[in-house]
Amino acid sequence: MKLSVWTYEGPPHVGAMRIATGMKGLHYVLHAPQGDTYADLLFTMIERRNHRPPVTYTTFQARDLGADTAGLFRTACEEAVARFRPEAIIVGASCTAELIQDDPGGMAETMDLGIPVVPLELPSYQRKENYGCDETFYRLCRALAQPQDRTARITCNILGGTALGFRHRDDIAEITSLLADMGIEVNVAAPLDATPADIARLPAAHFNVLLYPETAEAAARWLQKEHGQPYTRTIPIGVGATRDFVREVQQIAGTDILPDESHLRLPWWTASVDSTYLTGKRVFLFGDATHVMAMARVARDEMGFEVAGMGCYNREFARPLRKLAKEYGVEALITDDYLDVEAEIERLAPEMILGTQMERHIGKRLGIPCAVISAPVHVQDFPARYSPVMGFEGANVLFDTLVHPLVMGLEEHLLAMFREDFEFHDDAGPSHHGGGHAATSPVRAEERVPESTVGVVWLPAAEKELKKIPFFVRGKARRNTETFAAERGQTEIGVDTLYEAKAHYAR
């Protein structure tokens, strides 16, 4: 088993936690040793939830392994039902507890708890977190969804939102509003904020809106097969995809009502002169496959960027991502090792990264702007404000998300151009701090000398010329020039070397 400092996905029982924590009236009894009990940190610290996750652990210790750990599990189930009085429970084992083979699902089914019990078999050493979400929600639907008549009015279910999801809560609100504009009510949004009773009502809707295939595609397929509910395939991220989504919903629901687009800001931007400043900027995308594939279209077709590379960490979606990457003329990177991602970003040297919390850190080290577009994310990507990435308001949010890192780069470039001015030179200090002298500034990540080119010295004139290059490509220019000089055995870089390297890499 590989251990890593960073990981894109946790084990599958974390996915089950995300379903249980997103729902109401559902409790998760997890057979787990002391040390696997970290749900509180995930959901209260990162997502800033105002209540603890509904998870009960058996929390067995090393000394318990010689006794009856199965008895600990039965006691934990009985106490959880008595204390929390849930409508239903799900039961399973953590990755460590799986090794002792107590079969918590089988044990729970033999207990008369008086409520539905949904056993989970999540292979911890073959599968990961998103699979855990998908499988758990699918098992809940199979156990609880009841055949019933359709609602009198055209309704749909919104599937896929979970706890710890990237902007899921706001996305669901935005898509609910968009559907309301089209005259379509939402029957149930699940699993986020749903109850077991709501899961039972899923078959009453006429169709399903699948927003997050990673966490609900298995359930959507089962509902289509068993209850005759078609589901949408288009993920409404970006203006073009949202319009395609609207057309797909119109086709399924048999309506011709269009939602309001009057508050869109992106069309103004694409028609403005300002947009040309960022046209052609090379971007690299990495994250879960759904967000990467949707954001590639936004980056290229709506922002005018060039997609230099793309990849995903969830191998279940490798085939559609590889197919899309070919259409963009790039090779897909399918990996769950952040070091592979970092190496690819260094190789491609894009002007911007669209990625996860991991890529945010990689971008800081390499001096490349990064916008977060996908989980895994940290606390700053659970904003208190309304901030969807789906629908038309989501397109406005994405407009800010993609433009601001590069615009800030331009602003820094302008400050660099005037660094000799009496007001802006390095020793002047921030103007809003009363003009006090600044401390010596640390060397920026993109201006650090790579280990492979140690010993190559920049002459003052070349260093001054380098500072005229815009901030967001300066790091690439420095690395290319140093590599060019090192390959030719040069120990000093002058202005001539800088322009010779530029001409060499422009061929």
Instruction: Order the strands across the largest sheet as they lie in space.
Output: 10-9-8-11-12
Annotated CATH homologous superfamily of the largest domain = Nitrogenase molybdenum iron protein domain
**Total number of β-strand segments?**
14
Biggest β-sheet, characterized? 5 strands, parallel
On the 0 to 100 scale, the average pLDDT is: 85
Helix content: 40-55%
**Termini Cα gap:** 45 Å
**Nearest-angstrom radius of gyration?**
26 Å
Number of separate structural domains: 4
Share of β-strand residues: 5-15%
CATH class of the largest domain: Alpha Beta
CATH topology of the largest domain: Rossmann fold
CATH architecture of the largest domain: 3-Layer(aba) Sandwich
> What is the general shape?
globular
Q: How many helices?
A: 18
Region (Disordered): 427-446
EC number: 1.3.7.7
Pathway: Porphyrin-containing compound metabolism; bacteriochlorophyll biosynthesis (light-independent)
Keywords: 4Fe-4S, ATP-binding, Bacteriochlorophyll biosynthesis, Chlorophyll biosynthesis, Iron, Iron-sulfur, Metal-binding, Nucleotide-binding, Oxidoreductase, Photosynthesis
